Structures
1.
Amino acid sequence: MPLKFYTCQLLPNFIYNHSMKNEAQKFYAVIDLKSFYASVECVERGLDPFKADLVVADDSRGNGSVCLAVSPALRAKGVKNRCRLFEIPKAIKFIIAPPRMQFYIDYAAKIYEIYLKYVSKDDIYVYSIDEAFIDLTSYVKFYNTDAKSIAKKIMDEILKTTGVTATCGMGTNLYLAKIALDILAKHSDDGIAFLDEQLYKERLWTHQPLDDFWRIGKQTRLKLEKHGIFCMKDIANAPRRLLEKFFGVDAYITIDHANGIEPTTIADIKAYKPSTKSYFSSEILPRDYERCEAVVVLKEMADRLALRMINKEVMASGITINIKFADKLEPHQRASVRFKTPTNVSSMLMSSAEELLLNKIKNVGLIRQISISANDVVKESLAHSSLFEDDTKEKAVLKSLNLIKEKFGKNSVLRAIDLLPEATGQDRNKKIGGHKSGE
């Protein structure tokens, strides 16, 4: 089943008493933790996130370090989220808080426990560390109240328990809830906004720019504008062939969204099982790398990928690498290889990845980001092994390495390649999601 939505939104006051009398009507909420990382750091310092100027960034990487979050106070001064440190106006004095990813995960777990006090886990879909969708439909009757009141109660308890302010998007489907959150909630006095299909067309059908809407990026917006498409109403009325040119197989999902339609439910998402599975890893390099240096990092990544698959007892039918260059004008390049038989052996993945980078990627300059994925992953028990390849010994070694790393830490056993000056593996092993764990 194709998943169309993947985001939700918020709700104004006047809608509820009227619309919620219809028991057949669905009501979804998506709760977003405002400037989550920065808010947590302010709370821990006894500061008000709406008054304190604070950014979460690893300044050990230099002035070009990306800010993972900025406090609401800084955002109110025009500082954008995900900016770099040097982009913050020099006249502003601000606190730099090093990332503590494990600490943020623990905070998010406390907030998830709050959700569970009000709704079942079956009606919650955690979209990201700071955003969750909740199906409130059945709870309107259970609590004998309206959906907005339930959402408000949850938000109030989050603030009281953790000090973190939440906003909420609500809608009659998941997509409308997300759009209400992203576009309307921040302008609402109570941080809540609501959309149904009629309100969506009344309030947002002609809204510009288009990249305010989920799933439409800036480049797509610019291309659409060249064809006279500036808003969702234009998309709804555009020729189907033109939309297929821009969105491919997702064109009809985009048309549905242009009309405020989204049939996917949280139950559908939880029941969905992809026909194939892949394992993915991506790394932004600490500086611009020459190709020979990037090979070292790519081989480290392939090795970690192999260890993950060994641990899960799965094998990959092939791998894909994606390279982004320091020159942003250069298009990123991709190369893939399919194995004769599925494998999860490090030596095979490392040599294949090296071959792709050196021989399949056109040499156009310095490299800044590398991604690698293990494709069409299958269970070891279902894979057909080659009669001519005996990798039993290497697999046994890899399984032993996993056991040692689980007990003593990821850096307890290293390859010689991990000790090279351009290697990033040791530092990466200390992080969560590519950022400092804080431990």
2.
Amino acid sequence: MESRRTFLTRLGGLIGLMAGSSWWSAVGASKVKTYALHQPAMASGAEKVRVAAIGMGIMGFQDTRSALKVPGVELVGVADLYDGRLRRAKEVFGDHMYTTRHYQDLLSRNDVDVVLIATADLWHNTIAIDALKAGKAVYCEKPMVQLLDQGAGVIVAQQQSGRPLQVGSQRVSSVLYEQAKKLYEAGEIGDLNLVEARIDRHDALGAWQYSIPPDASPQTIDFDTFLKDTPKVPFDPVRFFRWRNYQAYGTGIPGDLFVHLLSGLHFITGAMGPERIYATGMLRLLERWSRCAGYHGCSA
């Protein structure tokens, strides 16, 4: 069994870093500690770990539910810029739940030990840094930052605060991938010559076409805060609920999907990243569409 401090350290155990970046040596990469991602157990009679969730969309609710499955964890409050998600949080986790549009309200509370960050990508670095400076342990959904140059600030904030920081990545945390890693290291799979990985997202949600609530309005959504430091635009619920479609707010296919393929393979093989990389592409679907557009009598 572990003390509450050790529990927090193991609960937020892994900092994702990119070797070879221009700022790598500047932040003291050799001082960054990593921890195995095993579910910790609280010592009998130990204090509870009190969690607050920031961003209550799809992953926000999933992360919160997952955290509450760990013995000794309790939810203190949630923050989101859309009132409908705050109402839903009360329905799911209890009407007593503290809710706010302002994540800073949660960071100022003494009864919050850990924050879960599941906002749009453009807010990850700012909230993570603010939370670490406030003395909170941090679990942040991937990607850790929207832009590579923002990574140094988060790492420095973690090192200065000494608080645990974990960047969430499903496949790195998967028991299936952990078993695959054991089989690979034991030689059960054999010599590795080629890895082919794919992700299929053939549905509306997979294409980020998330539903838009009928009550979405300037009154129910703090749209100006969502925009952060991006160019100001008139209220647009599509931008708010389907932010992954916009370069200004997200990281596109690489940050949402490719990272799963790459991080999972790196975890299994123990790789720190490629030494060389090249890309190829083709326009078969586009060519087929052109042939089948009626010009050549194609009915497929």
3.
Amino acid sequence: MPKRTRSGALLAVAVTGLTAAFTGPATAAPKVPGFLTAADLPPHPTSSWTAGKVTAGVPEETDGDTCLRALPGRKSAWHRDFRTDLDTNARQVTMVLPDTRSAKRLTSWLNRDIKSCAVRIEQHDPDTEATGKDYGSLPVEEGAHVYGVHTETSWGASDIRLLSVGRDGRTVTVVHWAQLGGFDGAPVKAFKKTTTKAVNKLR
């Protein structure tokens, strides 16, 4: 091989090696976790559930959600919305974290946000009375926890919301269910089953 050609070949090999050293192996994008279906939601007495598409990202509506302050801006996240023909809606948001430690930390933040949510609602809006309930933990994968938050305004609007946080390894999911009314109308038992299914589907 001529000297000049051989030198060029060696230089090309050296540059390729340096490029590989700086870039490292390609990191595969996280696989989309399993999501709830309409049939997994607490049954509505007079209307069936409709499920939207699984969509990348955290919904913009969470930006002003004082119960879920740790959600906005999360990467490697997906969500799915559900609705009935009446006054009930639901949503699942799932995030794949870089590692288990990060997932544990996010789970802790979310649980803390929800537990203190009612107090912050009243602080931000004196015309609204808020009450929170802790419905306890569920023995599924690395665990899940279920909560309820009821709000009533000075002009009589009453809304009930059930929320849960669950984790499987480095994947964290949040399930939200809401409708008009109070704690008496909240399907807590069915929502716990929904949460268990949500965490089991994260694999």
4.
Amino acid sequence: MEAVEDQEWLDGPARYVREVVRRVPMGRLRDGLRGLWLGHPLHPVLVQVPIGAWSSAAVLDLIPGEGRAARRLVAVGLLGAAPAALSGWVDWAEQRPRQSRVGLVHAATNLAAVTVYACSLAARFQGRGLLGRALGFGGLTIATVGGTLGGHLAYRQAAGVNHAEAVPVLVEPGWHRIGVLDDFPVGEPVRRTAGEVPLLVVRDEHGTLNALADRCSHLDGPLHEGQVVDGCVVCPWHGSEFRLSDGANVRGPATAPQPCFECRVTPDGTVAVRLATA
């Protein structure tokens, strides 16, 4: 797996494919495929259809008289592979280079599995059951390799995970002084820290202070370097958009909200923050 991460020659094809994926006009469907509405990536949910169907087909291929049911399951898996692949490409297009390399091999492996299963289905329809079953077991083996690569992406390279999940653990309870009111110009993002956690602080035109965890939940982008637009901050790395008042993610690729902090100003102008409760 680590050897795949080091294949720099994959960066060229990855750049080309990334631009193609980004230019496809999807509108709000793009965020839907990312899983913004679900609160975490949609791709792991969708892959259950082809994996489940093909695994079940392999079991039925071992049972005499279940050829028709196995054939139907192979077809279901092929149909389910299309939306799963589409959601995966949308996620992949906003990943770091080393993640992109593994993701590209992951996608190529899964494409090979789909091709083998398509041949398996064709053989089954032609009455060549033995060949169809053999191709089915081959396709499942390749899909398993692809799934292993996907697991490496998620669990080793942290693609698709919430990078702000640790904030409530790292911030000590209570109020943290972060400066005085004059340190926060209206409409300008300012970086401060609460203990070990970096914060983004923005003072709006009404004088209200809003504070969020600074590192984007998508891939740790520095939100304080982003733009403030219509009460939201836009991550400078991949364009995720978070509402300043409560940290809700308005637009992906981030699927998890940003941890939000309460702000208070004392009579002498001192500004303090504490982690907002749910």
